[in-house]
UniProtKB/TrEMBL annotation, chain A:
<keyword id="KW-0812">Transmembrane</keyword>
<dbReference type="InterPro" id="IPR035906">
    <property type="entry name" value="MetI-like_sf"/>
</dbReference>
<keyword id="KW-1133">Transmembrane helix</keyword>
<dbReference type="InterPro" id="IPR000515">
    <property type="entry name" value="MetI-like"/>
</dbReference>
<feature type="transmembrane region" description="Helical">
    <location>
        <begin position="160"/>
        <end position="182"/>
    </location>
</feature>
<feature type="domain" description="ABC transmembrane type-1">
    <location>
        <begin position="91"/>
        <end position="282"/>
    </location>
</feature>
<dbReference type="GO" id="GO:0055085">
    <property type="term" value="P:transmembrane transport"/>
</dbReference>
<keyword id="KW-1003">Cell membrane</keyword>
<keyword id="KW-0813">Transport</keyword>
UniProtKB/TrEMBL annotation, chain B:
<dbReference type="GO" id="GO:0055085">
    <property type="term" value="P:transmembrane transport"/>
</dbReference>
<feature type="domain" description="ABC transmembrane type-1">
    <location>
        <begin position="109"/>
        <end position="320"/>
    </location>
</feature>
<feature type="transmembrane region" description="Helical">
    <location>
        <begin position="108"/>
        <end position="134"/>
    </location>
</feature>
<feature type="transmembrane region" description="Helical">
    <location>
        <begin position="299"/>
        <end position="319"/>
    </location>
</feature>
<feature type="transmembrane region" description="Helical">
    <location>
        <begin position="239"/>
        <end position="258"/>
    </location>
</feature>
<keyword id="KW-0472">Membrane</keyword>
<dbReference type="GO" id="GO:0005886">
    <property type="term" value="C:plasma membrane"/>
</dbReference>
<feature type="transmembrane region" description="Helical">
    <location>
        <begin position="194"/>
        <end position="218"/>
    </location>
</feature>
<dbReference type="InterPro" id="IPR051393">
    <property type="entry name" value="ABC_transporter_permease"/>
</dbReference>
Length: 296, 330
């Protein structure tokens, strides 16, 4: 104990200049309140519209339009809006589509990425890699019209078709994110399992897939946000009103509210609420996951 | 078992068909330079387990069916006069000729490019500023990060409806109160100003993701560089332009390409705010393809437009690639 303290004391005493510099940085680490104020003011551009949505949703039509709190809280707006856009059905559709799209993406895209990442030295797999990645650069509007027609002719103009499209259209990006990660997993792990007699599929499910945890989280978060919030795909694929997702229902029924803006806002708030609630609780996790995808 | 070998053979056949000029420099296993009798391959001769083909090949087939086949179909339809149903005839390049004489299409392209540039510039300027601030010595850092990321989690269409109302009622009221002429009327109904809300919404929603990429970039910067700079008495402005910005250069490139790509496909914002109006002045190319192709009976004509759009975007991507790769050499 005493020896340890003396070593530290002597070590710091031999480097007085470094110590002084360190002290200087201590000082520098003080919070910059001016910058904090600027950041806080800027954050109002995000918070004020959200606040406006909440208070407007709770007003009477006559009161709407100002930023003040409602004089009487109109909770009935939510029930009325819910009935007009058939919210429970739309929410159920969105939930089913999102959950299945995320699970199927995780279960399928990962092993495609694994097969390609482990065989990049073979010409065929390298070709496949570019084959999948190239599609990332084909803008969606280019295939939109023929795709909508084709999905209709295959009777896939429903939730099932939409789920399939999310799984397929996401493959390029997911592959891009996952291959780098898989290649950082040492091959020796697999070789040991192979000697023990495990096949490639078994190795993937038992060893690789569990190790892909962080990247799977990234893929899951990004796919979930995309499938839940997407408007263009449901718009061109879903033909039956009973299959509508939340954003599509907002679009289709937007004229229902006429000038009853508080009811419309109640509907918008209900459309945004599920993601916002999840985000409030899993905020760190969501931001971290998307950031990992951004850095790749 | 037979089908398994079939898949393997098909795979091998494809392997042979492929040209040799694929870049192999980054290949995991260094290639042997020894020339072979029939074909000189830079790829390894290692035997690949069949299971790997079973993992990748079916996915490739499904991928082709849902993406590449529609793409080719689209190209074929663009040479017909199809309305999306019923009989049609081949009409050669007539659709393409008509596109070049169509003022509405020309305006959509011009409008798309102008707002894409505005959106890209604004998003990157704001995101750079915010990410540096959020990475700085501020209080309640994680809370602010969480707030700034909220727009990314919202559906553009839904928050777009919220902004539509804000642009229609409270904002003109504010304009009147302040006596600002151009703000006293709704921006959405003005032919000259309707682009502003669209750009605003795209920026409002798009900044979040760019901030995240820049933050990821800033975290790769070694703080010792700043300590050294601080000893040299560098001011904040110099610190950003001489140290931070060059160090996060690659992230700037990624952001420019990504935001530009998203901005060129602007669609939800237009549907939510203006529906292409007033007087078709705010139609983007994507909006026009959807509107004309799926609801306006111009199916083949708009597929031709889509093919043209693809060519234009490919050229832009190529220029970006050339520009940035030449810059990175410096």
């Amino acid at each position: 104990m005493t020896t340890a303290t003396t070593t530290i004391a002597s070590a710091s005493s031999t480097r007085p200049s470094a110590d002084a510099a360190h002290m200087k940085f201590r000082k520098d680490r003080r919070i910059n309140w001016w910058l904090t104020a600027v950041v806080a003011v800027f954050s109002l551009t995000i918070l004020v519209p959200l606040y406006f949505t909440v208070v407007t949703a709770l007003k009477t039509p006559a009161e709407a339009g100002s930023f003040s709190l409602p004089s009487s809280w109109q909770w009935g707006n939510f029930a009325a809006a819910s009935a007009k856009v058939d919210y429970p059905r739309a929410a159920l559709n969105s939930a089913i589509i999102t959950v299945l799209a995320v699970s199927l993406t995780l279960v399928t895209n990962t092993f495609v990425a694994y097969a390609i990442a482990r065989n990049m030295d073979k010409r065929f797999f390298r070709f496949l890699y570019y084959f999948f990645i190239a599609a990332m650069f084909v803008p969606f509007p280019v295939v939109m019209l023929p795709l909508a027609k084709q999905m209709g002719s295959w009777h896939l103009d429903n939730q099932a078709g939409l789920i399939i499209l999310y799984v397929i259209l996401g493959l390029g990006t997911n592959l891009f994110i996952a291959t780098g990660f898989i290649r950082s997993i040492p091959v020796s792990l697999e070789e040991a399992a192979r000697i023990d007699g495990a096949g490639t599929w078994r190795i993937f499910w038992k060893i690789i897939f569990p190790l892909m945890g962080p990247i799977n989280a990234t893929i899951a978060i990004m796919t979930a946000l995309w499938a839940w919030n997407d408007f263009l795909l449901p718009l061109i694929i879903l033909t039956d009103q009973s299959n509508q997702t939340i954003p599509l229902a907002q679009y289709v029924f937007s004229s229902q509210f006429a000038t009853n803006y508080p009811q419309a806002f109640a509907s918008y708030l209900m459309a945004m609420a599920p993601v916002l609630v999840v985000y409030v609780f899993a905020q760190k996790w969501v931001v971290g996951g998307v950031m990992r995808g951004a850095v790749k | 078992m037979t089908s398994l070998t079939n898949a393997d053979q098909q795979a091998r056949a494809m392997e042979d068909v492929l040209a040799n000029d694929i870049d192999t420099r980054r290949s995991r296993r260094p290639a042997s330079k020894t020339p072979r009798k029939r074909k000189a391959s830079a790829f390894s001769d290692r035997k690949v387990d069949h299971a790997y083909y079973w993992m990748a090949v079916p996915a490739a087939v499904i991928f082709a069916v849902f993406l590449y086949v529609p793409f080719i179909q689209g190209v074929l339809y663009s040479f017909t006069n199809s309305q999306g149903y019923g009989d049609y005839d081949w009409i050669g390049f007539k659709n393409y000729m008509a596109l070049f004489h169509d003022g509405r299409v020309g305006h959509a392209y011009l409008f798309t490019f102008l707002i894409a540039i505005a959106i890209t510039v604004l998003i990157n300027v704001i995101a750079l500023f915010l990410s540096v601030a959020l990475n700085g010595k501020i209080a309640w850092k994680n809370g602010f990060r969480a707030i700034y990321f909220i727009p990314y989690t919202l559906a553009v269409l839904v928050i777009g409806y919220v902004f539509k109302y804000i642009f229609m009622q409270p904002l003109p009221a504010l304009g009147k109160a302040l006596g600002i002429g151009w703000l006293s009327e709704s921006l959405l109904t003005s032919e000259r100003h309707a682009w502003i809300p669209i750009v605003f919404l795209a920026v409002w929603q798009g900044v979040a993701y760019s901030v995240l990429i820049y933050l990821a970039g800033l975290q790769t910067v070694d703080t010792q560089v700043y300590e050294a700079a601080a000893i040299d008495g560098v001011n904040a402005w110099q610190k950003f332009w001489k140290i931070t910005f060059p160090l996060i250069g690659p992230f700037f490139t990624i952001n420019l390409v990504l935001t530009m790509k998203n901005a060129l496909g602007t669609f939800d914002q237009v549907v939510a705010l203006t529906d292409g109006g007033p007087n078709s002045k705010t139609e983007t190319v994507t909006y026009l393809i959807w509107k004309g192709g799926l609801t306006g009976g111009e199916y083949a004509y708009q597929t031709a437009n889509a093919v043209l759009f693809f060519i234009v975007l490919a050229i832009i991507a190529f220029i970006q690639l050339k520009f940035f790769s030449s810059k990175e050499k410096v």
